[in-house]
Amino acid sequence: MMSVMGNPTNIFWHESTVGKTERQNLINQQGCVVWITGLSGSGKSTLACSLNRELHSRGKLSYVLDGDNVRHGLNKNLGFSSEDRTENIRRVGEVAKLFADAGLICIASLISPYRKDRDACRAMLTDANFIEAILLFCVFMNMSLEVCERRDPKGLYKLARAGKIKGFTGIDDPYEPPLNCEIMIEEKDGVCPTPCDMAGQVVSYLDENGFLHA
Amino acid sequence: MMSVMGNPTNIFWHESTVGKTERQNLINQQGCVVWITGLSGSGKSTLACSLNRELHSRGKLSYVLDGDNVRHGLNKNLGFSSEDRTENIRRVGEVAKLFADAGLICIASLISPYRKDRDACRAMLTDANFIEAILLFCVFMNMSLEVCERRDPKGLYKLARAGKIKGFTGIDDPYEPPLNCEIMIEEKDGVCPTPCDMAGQVVSYLDENGFLHA
C-alpha cells in the first residue's frame, strides 16, 4: 500500500506487510521506550545496564541507547549548543521510536535536561488514535546535585567547577526535573537504591502495564 | 566498564552488561544489515516487504528501514542536496548498525545512488578485528532505467522528465551501480523475478552464511 504524506511531496509512505503486532507476537513482548533522565552521576547508565540484564534474564529483548555512545555514531556531528542538544534528543527519540516499533524494549539513557525536548519525545511516542497509547515511560533519577557531585564517576563535576567545562548540566546549565514521570528513583531514608532495586522498580511497572507479554 | 574515547573528551563509552551475542542467543539469529540499492521503481520496497514477510514466517525478527519513511522522522530535517543525501545515508547506516547490534536482521531500502555513501556504510558495519566480519550485505536491484521508468509506480519519472523534479536519480542525477555486491537481482530471459523469488535469493544467502541461527 502506498499513500502520499506531508511535504516534501515526493516521499511516499510504504506500509510494511509485517506489522508491529506480528513482531510482538513473535517475541512475546510489547515494544516501548524507557526514557531515563537525570543529572550526570545520578545512576542512569547503572540503571540502564541493570534493567537490560534483568529483562534479558526474563527472556525479553531490550536494547540500550546511551546518550554518550550515540554521540560516537549517529550524533557525532552534534555539539553541545542548545540547538544541538535538542537535535541530539530528537534523533535519539526517533531511533527509540523505531526500536519500539520493531518490538523491542528500548532503554534510552540521556541527561535530557530540558523539559521541552523530553516532552517532544513523549509526543512522538504517543499514538493520538488510542487512549493511553503512550509508549514512552519516563524514569526520573531524582538524586540531589550533592550526591551526584560526590560520586562524580567521570570527574566531570570537578572540571566544571574548575571552569574547564562550560554549560555543564547542574552547574552552569539548568536541569528541569520532570513535572510528570511514570517512575521516580530516589533515596529512601538517606540510602540510594541498589542497581537491582532500581531495575526491579522499572520491571514491575512494565509487567503491571502488560509490556512483558504480547 | 568505562573508557575514555576520541573527541570530545567528555564523552565516555559505557559497556552494556548484555552483549550482542547474548541477544542473538535469545532470538536465535545473527544481527546484520541487508542493504537494498537501486533506481526508483526497481523493486526495492517490494523486496524489502517480501523479505521481511519471509523472515517472519521463519520466526526471525527483522525490521525495514525504508528511505522514504525515515525522511518523515529521523531525517525530516534533510533535503536532497548532495550533502543532505550523504547525511541521509549516513544516519540510516548508523541506525542500521544499532539494529544489527540489537540482534535484528535490518533491511535498509534506499536508492543510495552514490558509491562513496554506500561504501561508508559498509565500512561502518565491518569489524576490523575479525576476518570476514562484514555485517552489511548489498543487494543491487539491477533493473534498467527503461524498466523502472515504464513501471513508474509513484509517477516520479514523469515529473522528472517534465522538469518538475530536479536532480532525480537516473534522469539528471547519476546512479553509480555497485562494483561489488553480495546479491544481484535482475531480469532473466527478459522476465523480472517475483517478490518471492527475490526474497528467496536473499534468504538463501543469509542462511548459507549462518545468519538465521545464533
Explain the overall architecture:
The structure is a homodimer of 214-residue chains. Chain A has one domain (21-208): P-loop containing nucleotide triphosphate hydrolases (Rossmann fold). A 5-stranded parallel beta sheet of chain A has the order 4-5-3-6-7. Chain A has a two-stranded antiparallel sheet with strand order 1-2. Chain A has helices spanning 20-27, 44-57, 67-70, 82-102, 115-124, 145-151, 156-161, 195-208, and strands at 2-4, 12-14, 32-37, 62-66, 105-109, 136-142, 183-186. Chain A is built from 8 helices and 7 strands. Chain A is α/β, with parallel strands linked by helices and 214 residues long. Chains A and B meet through strand 2, helix 1, helix 2, strand 4 and helix 4 of A and strand 2, helix 1, helix 2, strand 4 and helix 4 of B. Chains A, B: This is Adenylyl-sulfate kinase. Chains A, B: Pfam families: APS_kinase (PF01583).
Q: Which percent range fits the helix content of chain A?
A: 25-40%
Calculate the mean pLDDT score of chain A and round it. 90
Largest interface: A-B, 55 and 55 residues
Helix and strand run of chain A: EEHEHEHHEHEHHEH
Strand content of chain A: 15-25%
Return Rg of chain A in Å.
Answer: 18 Å
Please identify the top-level CATH class of chain A. Answer: Alpha Beta
Structural class of chain A: alpha/beta
CATH topology of chain A: Rossmann fold
Report low-confidence residues of chain A grouped into runs of 5 or more: 1-8
User: Number of helix segments of chain A?
Assistant: 8
Net shape of chain A: globular
The main sheet of chain A orders its strands as: 4-5-3-6-7
Whole-number total of structural domains of chain A: 1
CATH evolutionary superfamily of chain A: P-loop containing nucleotide triphosphate hydrolases
The CATH architecture assignment of chain A turns out to be: 3-Layer(aba) Sandwich
First-to-last CA distance of chain A: 26 Å
Largest sheet of chain A: 5 strands, parallel
Oligomeric form: homodimer
Number of E-type strands of chain A: 7
